[in-house]
Specification:
Blueprint (H helix, E strand, L loop, with lengths): L2 H18 L11 H21 L6 H4 L4 H9 L10 H24 L6 H8 L2 H14 L10 H25 L5 H14 L3 E6 L7 H4 L4 E6 L4 E8 L2 E9 L3
């Protein structure tokens, strides 16, 4: 099953669950005005990501100002990660999300692929596809991989970044996201999606970095057709992203 197929299954289950729990779901905690603002930001984020093909320039545009500090605070307690600097965490996060984006684009473009590796192989030249699939196999998300020290982490990160840059360059050169084939398949996903699903949730404890916990207690999740869920907090009356990550199975 490809990431696109998993996404559609998750969206169906999410929608079904929300219907079954109507009247109890936290989506009722969102005003119409806030929901429209979140929908606008989510659509804008997706459009901008398809233009940049890189989440790095979107960090200052959509995320909280001290995202790096919050990312460190959320993850540094995990085993093996106490040596990493703020810059390391941000670089690892950018590599993770950009890898997911590339897989999602390939799965959308190669809609007949049976799994993510086949989608990558169908879309990219053999050299890029082989390197990308080799790195993706076993390592999973880079920041969640096992590594003994910072030196090993940075070595893995450098390998990932090099392949990601090649894949991004190919997408940019071929204008894949702007192609008729991709747009046709992406519109199908959006149609099945029936609008971006928005819900309000209490902020999990691992999101409670100091800057967030002092100003917000509620989070807002927007599921997108990119296979990413966007997690917002309302800070000083403005919605800012505190995290973007894969939609949970």
């Amino acid at each position: 099953m490809t990431i696109v197929q998993r996404l559609l299954l998750i969206l169906f289950l999410t929608f079904y669950a929300s219907v079954m729990t109507f009247g109890q779901t936290s989506t009722n905690d969102i005003s119409d005005n806030d929901k429209q603002k979140l929908l606008y930001i989510a659509h804008k984020f997706v459009k901008r990501y398809q233009q940049t093909r890189d989440i790095a320039p979107l960090l200052p545009e959509f995320f909280i100002g001290n995202f790096g500090e919050c990312l460190m605070e959320m993850r540094k307690f995990e085993e093996g990660k106490n040596e990493l600097t703020k810059k390391d965490f941000i670089r690892g996060y950018v590599a993770e999300i950009n890898s997911l984006y590339i897989v999602m684009v390939a799965g959308t473009y190669a809609s007949g692929a049976g799994n993510d590796a086949e989608g990558i192989t169908e879309l990219f030249p053999t050299r890029i596809a082989k390197r990308f699939n080799q790195l993706a196999k076993g390592d999973g998300l880079l920041i969640d991989s096992d590594f003994s020290d910072r030196k090993q982490f940075l070595r893995k990160l450098k390998e990932h970044e090099a392949v990601i840059v090649e894949a991004q360059s190919y997408l940019r050169m071929k204008r894949i996201e702007q192609s008729a084939k991709y747009q046709k398949e992406f519109r199908k996903i959006e149609k099945d999606f029936s609008g971006y699903f928005i819900k309000a949730v209490p902020l999990p404890e691992d999101f409670h970095c100091k800057a967030i916990s002092e100003t917000a207690v509620k989070g807002y999740i927007a599921l997108t057709p990119l296979g990413l869920q966007l997690i917002f907090a309302k800070i000083h009356n403005r919605f800012k992203l505190i995290l973007a990550g894969p939609i949970d199975d």
